[in-house]
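User: Show me a protein chain along with its predicted structure.
Assistant: Here is one chain, sequence first, then structure tokens.
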Amino acid sequence: MSLAMNREELEDYMSQIFPQVSQDYSVQDLTEESIVMRLAVGDRHLRPGGTVSGPSMFGLADVSVYALILARRGQQSLAVTTGCSMDFMRKPDGNADLIARCTLLKLGKTLAVGDVLIFSEGSDKPVARATMTYSLPPEGSAAAAFG
């Protein structure tokens, strides 16, 4: 399967539908099989103790799977998260951006499942791992065409 959107088209579309967070996330690499996303860590992402908060890591995992679904299927902004399993394994470096490496384990007609490993930039040891499940609007439906 080929990509429905390239990196630039994906970032432009995400900026349109999520302008409130578009400055936080960027696409570092995109292939048919995977996406690498960056969270530009700032003070608002930190919790006491100088570590990146769990909700910030969840957001990065969620956005990564969502972005890869969009890149593969096209402008379907109504795909929604229906499940998440997340393991927090190490303390992230509060002075480094977070990097997420995401692959889709399944991309069906109505369901997508993605796996995400999150790293502090400069480290090869993951700080978190997530499996995200998304419900997808049927292709050709009014919901699928929303955007």
